[in-house]
């Protein structure tokens, strides 16, 4: 199988290439970029030595055609035009947001502009989703925060243990914001400080979290989401809480998480008493989970750590692509992180 990567000079593109270099079933084909087309990959991804001399081509249908698989790691709004030019014989895996949401009104509210459409959602752990991905020719990779929050909360909703009222506070590393310069991401302002942003129900990942959890709850789930920027390059640590249903015990909660995670290759429910940290999942396609019942407050507290670029983007994209290509789901994906 041959894969092209559009957006190869960016953070998500770089992580796709790092993982694909160790993937035994996928060969790396054309690499494309925007303004950096014409240069070589080594100028932008110096950690990927085997590909250093590969040219970055312009992101055109001509350069992407003729591949079994195309990963799009482009800014929001760029994917539809590219996808329209590629036939169904090419599997397209879009790391951007364009095709994640089912509700056009939610798209218009949070992103603005016309809704491009809806593709099968690339989170195999979401109950019922794995089978849909096996038949997919187009895949919308989830946002990094929605990946973390959905993985933390789906066991509680699937077992009917919590009320549909979730509060999330999540810290992300700066690579989540992409490589293009941004005024609030100057190194001297990010280093040595953790700060909230996108507060008050305005972050565009909120409707995606609600979309994932509501079908499991059987009623609309409301998520109050507060993201934070942390002085690290990679990683998300999300703390998610929801009111416990009456009578819930700590034992029943633990059992629900054990059942939901035991056959999932990339979900690691930590031993009781151990809590997730981003350092546990650095460079791994793993989500580290822990859950507790706060009996005083009557709330379930679930904490999850992922690497935003691995399970949160590129690793998740390859996991879903493996399913759609009929390959083993875990092929080429690291379970182990980098530590210390
Ligand atoms: N970073 C993350 O943690 C996550 C990212 N994603 C998604 O992945 C996608 C890429 O994000 P990320 O890698 O962080 O972003 P970057 O800014 O790091 O990279 C963007 C890439 O797109 C290329 N590009 C920009 N504009 C154009 C254009 N007009 N035409 C063609 N290519 C263009 C850039 O090329 P050039 O170098 O030439 O400018 C670069 O290769 C986004 O949709 C993002 O939402 C999803 C989940 C998490
Ligand atoms: C730290 C940071 O800025 N994170 C990004 C989200 C990460 C991401 O890439 O999400 P999309 O795929 O939806 O763009 C943000 O909050 O906008």
Strand order in the sheet with the most strands: 8-9-7-10-13-12-11
Distance between the termini: 35 Å
Ligands bound here? NADPH dihydro-nicotinamide-adenine-dinucleotide phosphate, N-acetyl-L-glutamyl 5-phosphate
Radius of gyration: 19 Å
What is the CATH homology-level superfamily of the largest domain? Answer: Dihydrodipicolinate Reductase, domain 2
Number of helices, where a helix is a run of at least 4 consecutive DSSP H or I residues = 10
**Overall number of structural domains:** 2
Main beta sheet: 7 strands, mixed
Report the uncertain regions.
Answer: none
* CATH topology description of the largest domain: Dihydrodipicolinate Reductase, domain 2
CATH class of the largest domain: Alpha Beta
Q: Based on DSSP secondary structure assignment, what is the total number of beta strands?
A: 13
**Average pLDDT:** 97
Judging from the principal axes of the Cα atoms, what is the shape?
globular
CATH architecture name of the largest domain: 2-Layer Sandwich
SS class: alpha/beta
Reading the helices and strands in chain order gives EHEEHEHEHHEHEHEHEEHEEEH
Q: Report the sheet-strand fraction.
A: 15-25%
Helix content: 25-40%
Pathway: Amino-acid biosynthesis; L-arginine biosynthesis; N(2)-acetyl-L-ornithine from L-glutamate: step 3/4
Catalytic activity: N-acetyl-L-glutamate 5-semialdehyde + phosphate + NADP(+) = N-acetyl-L-glutamyl 5-phosphate + NADPH + H(+)
Function: Catalyzes the NADPH-dependent reduction of N-acetyl-5-glutamyl phosphate to yield N-acetyl-L-glutamate 5-semialdehyde.
Pfam family, one: Semialdhyde_dh
């Amino acid at each position: 199988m041959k894969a092209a990567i559009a957006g190869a000079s960016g953070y998500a593109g770089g992580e796709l290439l790092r993982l694909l270099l160790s993937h035994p079933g996928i060969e790396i084909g054309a690499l494309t970029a925007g303004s950096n087309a014409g240069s070589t990959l080594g100028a932008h991804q110096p950690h990927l030595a085997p590909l250093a001399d590969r040219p970055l081509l312009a992101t055109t249908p001509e350069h992407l055609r003729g591949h079994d698989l195309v990963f799009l790691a482009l800014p929001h709004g760029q994917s539809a035009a590219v996808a329209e030019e590629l036939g169904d014989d090419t599997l397209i895996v879009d790391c951007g947001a364009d095709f994640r949401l089912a509700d056009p009104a939610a798209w218009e509210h949070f992103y603005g502009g016309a809704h491009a459409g809806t593709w099968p959602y690339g989170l195999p752990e979401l109950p019922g989703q794995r089978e849909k991905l096996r038949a997919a020719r187009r895949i919308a990779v989830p946002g990094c925060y929605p990946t973390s929050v959905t993985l933390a909360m789906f066991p509680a909703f699937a077992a009917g243990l919590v009320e549909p009222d979730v509060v999330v506070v999540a810290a992300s590393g700066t690579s989540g914001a992409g490589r293009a310069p941004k005024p609030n991401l100057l190194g001297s302002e990010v280093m040595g400080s953790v700060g909230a942003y996108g507060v008050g129900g305005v972050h565009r990942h909120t409707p995606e979290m609600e979309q994932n959890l509501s079908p499991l709850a059987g009623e609309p789930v409301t998520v109050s989401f507060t993201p934070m920027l942390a002085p690290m390059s990679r990683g998300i640590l999300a703390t998610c809480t929801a009111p416990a249903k009456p009578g819930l015990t700590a034992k029943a909660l633990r059992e629900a998480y054990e059942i939901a995670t035991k056959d999932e290759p990339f979900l690691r429910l930590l031993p009781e008493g151990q809590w997730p940290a981003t350092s546990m999942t650095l460079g791994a396609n793993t989500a580290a989970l822990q859950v507790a019942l706060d009996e005083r407050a009557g709330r379930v507290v679930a904490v999850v750590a992922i690497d935003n670029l691995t399970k949160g983007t590129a690793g998740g994209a390859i996991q879903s692509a493996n399913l759609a290509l009929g390959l083993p789901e875990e092929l080429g994906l690291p379970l182990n992180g980098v530590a210390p």
